[in-house]
Write a structure and sequence with these properties.
By secondary structure, the chain is an alpha+beta fold. The chain is built from 15 helices and 16 strands. The strands form three sheets. Strands 2-1-4-9-6-7 form a six-stranded antiparallel beta sheet, with helices on one face. Strands 12-13-11-14-15-16 form a six-stranded mixed beta sheet, sandwiched between helices. A four-stranded antiparallel beta sheet has the order 3-10-5-8. The N terminus and C terminus are likely disordered.
Length: 575
C-alpha cells in the first residue's frame, strides 16, 4: 500500500474515533446530575422497603455516567437513582444505556411504572439503542427512582443511566439514530456491492466478505437493539443471546475464509493456511455443540467460544501482517480495516470486565468502526476487482496476440473476422492473404533470428499501411491475412499493390544484394454465400496463383491480370 493510501486510511480512522469521542462526551454530560446505589435482590424484597433501607444506611454507590457492571444475581439487582438539584418539573425520560437483553422495571415506591427490554414490543415508549421510561410529572424530580434489573442467562452488561427532559432526549436520540442508521447503511450497502461483484466476477472472495459484513451488522444490531427498534424485527425477539453467539462465530468464520483469499495466504503465508482454515471450520462446530442441548457439549462450547474467538482474531491479524510484509497488496487493506475493529472489540470486552468505565461510547464506536472497516475493505475489494479485470484483459490480449509480431493470431483474427461478417453489412469486404517469397532461404542463410526480425519488420510495415479498422493478423509462419471493410475490388487491388511495394522497399536481403524479400498477395471479395473460411481459401488460392505467375505481385481471386512489382521498377504496377 502506498503512503498516500496509508494517509487516507489513517484520516478516516481518525474521523471515526473523533465521532466516538463526541458521542462519549454527550453521554457523559447528560448523566452528570445523577447518583446511584445498588444491591442484589433478596427473596421477599418490596420496592418501598428498598428505598427506606437506602435512606437509613448507605448502599454501594456508583456514578451513572460511568459504565457500571451490575452483578448477575439469581434474583436480580436493585438500583436506586437520585437526581441532584437543581430539580426540574414536568415529564422526564429515564434512559438505561447498554442494558444487555434482560428486562428492567421502574418503580415509584411500591408502584410498578413500567417494565421493558431491548426486544420488548409492548406499548410505547421504546428507546433506540437504550431502554427508556417515561417519568410522569406527578413524580417529583427530588424523589429517588427504583430500577430492578431482572436476572438473565447472560450478563446484564455495563450500564449507564441518565434522566433528561423529553426535548433533550429526543435531540440525543435523533443524533444516535442518524449515526447508527448511517453506519448500518454503509455496512449493508457494501455487503450488497460485494454480492454483486460475486455474481459478476464469480469470485467467492466477495461472497465471504458480504457474509461477514451481514453477520457483523446483525451482531451490532442485536447488541444495540437496533434490529428491534427502530427496525421492528419482532421475529427475533427472545433470540438475541443464542442468535448473537451463533452469528459471532459465523462472522469470524467468514472473515477467515475471506482473508485466506483476499490476502493470498496460500501464496504469502502457506504455513498459516491450515490453522486459519481449521479455525474457520471449528467455529461453526462450536455453535452446533452449543445448540445440541446436551449439557456437557453445551458447557464445553460455551467454555471454548470466547477464547477461540480471541485466538482466531489474533491469528487472522498475524497472518494478514505477515502476508502484507511479504508483498500482499490487499493484506494492507485487510489490516487497515481489521486492526481497529479488533482493538475496539478487545476494549469492549475489557469494559465488560470493569475496565474503561469512563468511556461509555465504546459500544457505539464499535458500530462506527464496523462501517469504517466496510469502507476500507470495499475499497480493497474494488482494487481487487480492477486487478482481476486488468489481469483478464492482459491474459486475453496475450491469448489473442501473436507473441512475435504483436498482431492478432489466427484464432483471434478468425473470431474478429467472423464478427464482422455476421454484422450483415452491405458494405463490400475484401480479404488479403500474404505469403513472404523465399522466406525459407532467408532462414537457412541468415538464421531464424534474422527471419524473426524480418517478420517483425513486415508486420510493422503492413500495420502502418493499413487503416486502424482493418483487421490484420499473422496466419502462421510467414503468412499474414487482412480484412478490409468498405473497399471495392479495384481499391483492394491498389492496397495489395501498395503493400507489395512496401515490403519490397524494406530491403531485406535473402542472399545476394540483388535478391530481396518480397511478398505475394491473394485478394478475395466477399459474396453473399461466403464465410471467413471460404474467403480465406479463395484468397489463399489467388496468392498461390500470384506465386506461380512470378511472385512479388497481387492477384484477385477469379480474375486475371496480376499486379507485378519488380525490384528495378519499384513504384509501378504492371497488369
Amino acid at each position: 500500500m502506498s503512503n498516500r493510501q496509508h494517509g487516507w486510511v489513517y484520516r478516516l480512522f481518525q474521523a471515526t474515533v473523533l465521532c466516538g469521542l463526541l458521542l462519549g462526551s454527550t453521554a457523559t454530560a447528560s448523566a452528570a446530575t445523577l447518583t446511584a446505589n445498588w444491591r442484589e435482590v433478596r427473596p421477599g424484597d418490596a420496592p418501598a422497603e428498598i428505598l427506606r433501607e437506602a435512606a437509613q444506611r448507605p448502599l454501594p454507590a456508583f456514578d451513572p455516567a460511568r459504565m457500571q457492571i451490575l452483578p448477575n444475581a439469581p434474583t436480580g439487582t436493585w438500583v436506586i437513582v437520585h437526581s441532584l438539584p437543581p430539580w426540574t418539573t414536568g415529564e422526564r425520560v429515564l434512559s438505561v444505556g447498554h442494558p444487555g437483553m434482560g428486562a428492567v422495571s421502574l418503580y415509584d415506591g411500591d408502584t410498578l411504572v413500567a417494565t421493558t427490554s431491548l426486544d420488548d414490543f409492548g406499548p410505547s415508549p421504546h428507546g433506540h439503542g437504550r431502554l427508556i421510561f417515561n417519568v410522569p410529572a406527578s413524580i417529583p424530580a427530588s424523589r429517588p427512582l427504583l430500577l430492578k434489573f431482572e436476572p438473565t442467562a447472560q450478563s446484564p452488561g455495563a450500564v449507564t443511566i441518565s434522566i433528561d427532559s423529553w426535548p433533550d432526549y429526543l435531540r440525543d436520540d435523533g443524533s444516535w439514530m442518524v449515526f447508527a442508521t448511517g453506519c448500518f447503511a454503509v455496512m449493508l450497502t457494501m455487503a450488497l456491492m460485494a454480492l454483486c461483484f460475486t455474481l459478476i466476477l464469480r469470485d467467492m472472495t466477495f461472497g465471504w466478505y458480504a457474509a461477514y459484513l451481514i453477520c457483523y451488522a446483525l451482531i451490532q444490531g442485536l447488541r444495540s437493539g437496533f434490529v428491534f427498534h427502530p427496525l421492528e424485527l419482532q421475529s427475533l425477539a427472545g433470540m438475541a443471546d443464542s442468535l448473537g453467539a451463533a452469528v459471532t462465530a459465523l462472522s469470524v468464520t467468514f472473515a477467515a475464509l475471506f482473508m485466506l483469499r483476499f490476502a493470498k495466504v496460500d501464496e504469502y503465508v502457506p504455513l498459516l493456511r491450515t490453522p486459519v482454515l481449521a479455525f474457520a471450520v471449528v467455529m461453526p462446530l462450536l455453535i452446533v455443540l452449543r445448540a445440541s442441548g446436551v449439557g456437557v457439549l453445551v458447557g464445553m462450547a460455551q467454555l471454548l467460544l470466547q477464547p477461540l474467538l480471541l485466538l482466531g482474531a489474533l491469528l487472522l491479524l498475524v497472518a494478514g501482517a505477515i502476508a502484507a510484509v511479504r508483498g500482499s497488496r490487499h493484506a494492507w487493506f485487510f489490516l487497515a480495516g481489521w486492526t481497529p475493529l479488533l482493538i475496539l472489540t478487545a476494549l469492549c470486552g475489557a469494559q465488560q470486565q470493569g475496565m474503561f468505565t469512563e468511556a461509555p461510547w465504546l459500544p457505539d464506536a464499535a458500530i462506527a468502526v464496523g462501517a469504517f472497516e466496510a469502507i476500507v475493505l470495499s475499497i480493497g475489494l474494488s482494487d481487487r476487482a480492477l486487478t482481476i479485470r486488468h489481469d483478464r484483459d492482459r491474459a486475453r490480449q496475450l491469448a489473442d496476440s501473436d507473441p512475435l509480431t504483436g498482431l492478432l493470431n489466427r484464432r483471434a483474427w478468425t473470431d474478429a473476422a467472423t464478427g464482422v461478417l455476421e454484422q450483415g453489412s452491405s458494405r463490400p469486404i475484401a480479404v488479403l492473404f500474404f505469403d513472404l517469397d523465399h522466406f525459407k532461404e532467408l532462414n537457412d542463410r541468415h538464421g531464424h533470428a534474422t527471419g524473426d526480425r524480418a517478420l517483425v519488420a513486415v508486420a510493422a510495415a503492413l500495420r502502418h499501411e493499413l487503416r486502424p479498422p482493418d483487421l490484420l493478423g499473422r496466419y502462421g509462419g510467414e503468412e499474414f491475412v487482412a480484412l478490409l471493410q468498405g473497399v471495392e475490388k479495384e481499391n483492394a487491388m491498389q492496397v495489395a499493390t501498395r503493400l507489395c511495394r512496401r515490403v519490397h522497399r524494406l530491403d531485406v536481403h535473402l542472399g545476394s544484394p540483388d535478391s530481396l524479400l518480397t511478398v505475394s498477395i491473394g485478394v478475395a471479395m466477399r459474396t453473399p454465400a461466403d464465410t471467413v473460411q471460404s474467403l480465406v481459401e479463395r484468397a489463399d488460392k489467388a496468392m498461390y496463383a500470384a506465386k506461380l505467375a512470378g511472385r512479388n505481385q497481387a492477384m484477385c481471386a477469379g480474375h486475371a491480370g496480376p499486379v507485378l512489382v519488380r525490384r528495378n521498377d519499384v513504384g509501378k504496377a504492371v497488369n
